[in-house]
Amino acid sequence: MNTFQTSQEYLNMDLLRFTTAGSVDDGKSTLIGRLLHDSKAIFEDQMEAIERTSAQSGDEHVNLALLTDGLRAEREQGITIDVAYRYFATPKRKFIIADTPGHIQYTRNMVTGASTANLAIVLVDARNGIVEQTCRHAFIASLLQIKHLVLCVNKMDLVDYKEEVFNKIKDDFEAFSSKLDIKDIHYIPISALKGDNVVDRSVEMDWYKGGTLLYVMENVHIASDFNLVDSRFPVQRVIRPQSDKYHDFRGYAGRIEGGIFKPGDDIMTFPSGFTSKIKSIETMDRKLEEAFPPMSVVMTLEDDLDISRGDIIVKPNNQSQVGQDIDMMLCWLNEKPLNPTGKYALKHTSKEVRCIIKDVRYKVDINTLHKIEDDKEIGLNDIGRIMVRTTSPLFFDSYRKNRASGSLVLIDEFTNETVGAGMII
Amino acid sequence: MSRYNLTHLEQLESEAIFIMREVAAQFEKPVLLFSGGKDSIVMVRLAQKAFWPAKIPFPLMHIDTGHNFEETITFRDKLVEDVGTKLIVRYVEDSIKSGRAVEEKGLNPSRNGLQTITLLDAIEEFRFDAAFGGARRDEEKARAKERFFSHRDEFGQWDPKNQRPELWNIFNGKKHMGEHFRVFPLSNWTEMDVWQYIASEKLRIPSIYFSHKRTIVNRNDVLLAQSAFITLLEGEVYEEKTVRFRTVGDMTCTGAVESDAGTLEDIIQEVASARITERGARADDRRSEAAMEDRKKQGYF
Predict the structure, then answer these.
(1) Contact A73 B22 (CB under 8 A)
(2) Looking at residue B49, which CATH number applies to its domain?
(3) Distance, in angstroms, between B155 CA and closest chain A CA?
């Protein structure tokens, strides 16, 4: 596969970030091991190391799951504690895997892994079909606005590769997923252990006419995953070189988080509300004719405005929302529950403010998607709908519209830990 | 590919620049840890891009084991001059002389582990609150769990089981007095990405990365270069081989690989077909399965 690549091919690859979710014994680690192994991303010394460890613990097969267990405690206990990131590439794409543990208590890690993913793989054991955890994983993928979901029906070898089994699971999931907000869903029958339909087509399942998992991941259309309509440029830093050559240079450094900006475009800045025109968009390498997500650039304006970190540059005809009362879905990440009258630090794009919790509206039963209105304690791994009021206005969009300007985190002001992940409604 | 699509390398570059700008904004006194190796050379280029047309707003710091490949030191000084930034050097030798660190016992003591002491002392000396490292998650399995913004307590220690969740592109650099952060902008890069970036940016790298003739000794399948810091064990002999180095580190534990790769394109082809990880040639990682995890917990790079 990728044993030989010219540099030119390599420089034309794009990037797909995906997350994997499955219950404890659905074969998630085996699947990742299979992808890494069959795409030749596992090196001999890594393979030897896990062969040694497998032999020591008396495993019959080489345990590919060991590849993804990084910490001593994980190897000792045979569990995955934390999100681990893996990398592999084919001539078409580079892949970043956020490998998250499947245990019931680890919603936190799944949300973390899903927050940057384009695609989610949800694994189902063909013998068990859709279970509570499948629904939870799909719900989190939907909540985090992952655009593409692949439902892999694994262990097909254990149900004699029967088409009926696959179709039943597919129908069940379609019924459930109509309640979700995911447009692009693929269904693939696989056996991670035997390798069917992972990288190579299965000879056992000629009734399946769709692509293999790797084919889908290589070809799913991700170019439109970024919002190219609503122009958003949060300012990270003001660049003033104070050198002879760039004596009067005043540039705004940041990353394009939405839309397309061009020199000459009319812009508006928040919170000041001033308008101006873009003079130039530059990087160290060149002046750009247009800039789009997720480019990191330096922007200069025709007028000298008072702009600093935390401000945002938008287009006058397409402004973000402005406000201090923020309505959001919140996933709680900390052992210490949400204090319903507490104050927290809040980070949103390049801005940091403080906030007070105004209202906990309801908690979500993430298995049934029902609203729970009589128990409003938001503890570790809970997801709820809350309102906060901030000390100064945020310039935001709904998370559905823009992942970057619609997401925020809450920070405990005493421990400095990141305790909550918010998606603005 | 669509017109509004960045290649994966452009996305990785943009991500790293974003992280560097976040650090400059969120911290008072950052420093970039610079070893002279390829990853830190890439880091310096990214830092130039992040703050252009202004200069890099933080110094570079080299923790010098004294067991250096001469070429990398010459290279380091030239690069610092070209970039026009400040370089701080702190020596493991000084930590040993002052009794802060104790040289390992045995014939060929490695100073790799001792760097941690010198590094933490230097961070305290200059009151650095964020230290950039060039480590990548693909290098080693403990590193695969590392955050971009990695919190260190007042003892400089890493607590892998109690890391802050890192969501979207929101980075939490809040800390108490005396604590600091390690920041890894290259987290999502692979060895291949680094090489391709070096090639596409036409970055200069130390000559030891390219194939050359060198006198080496094969010790437990690690090819160590002849130097004043190596003493032959019984039965060992020096031999001349055509080699190159895949990483740059302490001479006592950085192994060479036999290679004819004399150009960047050769190296890229070699990396593409390599069957051994780049750290596979490092004796420091072979000490035990959790060697890296243990060193990192104590405050290693």
Answers:
(1) no
(2) 3.40.50.620
(3) 17
Q: What is the pTM of this model?
A: 0.91
User: Going by C-beta distance under 8 Å and a sequence separation of 6 or more, which residues neighbour residue B201?
Assistant: B45
> Pick from A14, A96, A111: which is nearest to B5 by CB?
A14
- The beta-carbon neighbor of B1 closest among A12, A69, A96 is A12
Å from B275 to nearest chain A CA?
Answer: 5
Domain that holds residue A308: 233-314
Residue A159's φ and ψ, nearest 5 degrees, are: -120, 30
Say what angle helices A132-143 and A163-177 make with each other, to 10 degrees: 50
| CA–CA distances in Å: residue B86 to residues A347, B23, B120 | 32, 18, 19
Is the same domain home to B261 and B172?
Answer: no
The tokens of A289 are what?
């004719």
A74 and A195 housed in the same domain: yes
CB B182 within 8 A of CB B131: yes
State whether B24 and A116 contact (CB < 8 Å).
Answer: no
State the smallest CA–CA distance between residue A169 and chain B in angstroms: 32
The range of the structural domain enclosing residue B277 comes to 206-286
Residue ending a domain, among A295, A314, A333, is A314
Q: Which of residues 255-284 of B touch A (CB under 8 A)?
A: 265, 268-269, 272-277, 280
Radius of gyration for chain A, computed over Cα atoms and rounded to the nearest angstrom: 24
How many residues belong to chain B? 301
Q: What is the DSSP letter of B160?
A: G
| Residue B186 with chain A: CB contacts under 8 Å | none
Which chain B residue's Cα is nearest to A296? B14
Residue of A nearest to B4 (CA): A292
Q: Which two tokens stand for residue B187?
A: 């987290």
SS3 A345: strand
Task: Flag whether B157 is in a domain.
Answer: yes
The CA–CA distances, whole Å, from B169 to A404, B147, B229 equal 7, 12, 44
For every one of its 301 residues, what pLDDT tens digit does chain B have, with 9 covering 90 and above?
Answer: 468 889 999 999 999 999 999 999 999 999 999 988 999 999 999 999 999 999 999 999 999 988 888 888 999 999 999 999 999 999 988 888 888 888 877 766 777 778 888 999 999 999 999 999 999 998 877 788 889 999 998 888 888 777 899 999 999 999 999 899 999 999 999 988 999 999 999 999 999 999 999 998 888 888 888 887 878 888 889 999 999 988 887 777 788 889 999 999 999 888 877 666 665 655 565 555 566 777 777 777 7
The continuous run of DSSP H or E covering B124 comes out as: helix B115-126
- Would you call A409 and B17 a contact, using CB atoms and an 8 Å cutoff? no
Structure tokens at A314: 């938008």
Verify whether the Cβ–Cβ distance B196 to A11 is below 8 Å. yes
- Residue type (1 letter), B109: P
Domain end call among A225, A252, A284: A225
- My answer on whether A101 and A64 are in the same domain is yes
How much is the ipTM here?
0.91
B288 has a chain A CB within 8 A of its CB: no
